Amino acid sequence: MAGFTWGLSYIGTNARGGAGECYRNAFDRDLGKATVVLSATRTF
């Protein structure tokens, strides 16, 4: 695929905390998560 630049990123965390700590949401669940981003850019 000539003329394209591809990028792939993986960002993950295993944040954990006890009840009432900043790593918990309002439903008392850990906020650890993972995100994958794929980006494509076309050059002219």
Strand and helix layout:
Blueprint: E1 4-12, E2 34-42
Antiparallel strand pairs: 1-2
Instruction: State the helical fraction.
Output: under 10%
User: What is the end-to-end distance?
Assistant: 13 Å
- Strand arrangement within the widest β-sheet reads 1-2
Content-based structural category: mainly beta
Radius of gyration (Å): 18 Å
Strand runs, count: 2
How would you state the average pLDDT, rounded?
Answer: 78
Q: Total number of helical segments?
A: 0
Strand content: 35-45%
What are the segments in which pLDDT stays under 50 over at least 5 consecutive residues? none
What's the story with the biggest beta sheet? Answer: 2 strands, antiparallel
Describe the fold and architecture.
With 44 residues, the protein is mainly β. A two-stranded antiparallel ribbon has the order 1-2. 0% of the residues are buried.
List keywords for this structure.
single chain
Summary?
This protein has 44 residues and is mainly β. Helix content is 0%, strand content 41%. The protein contains no helices and two strands.
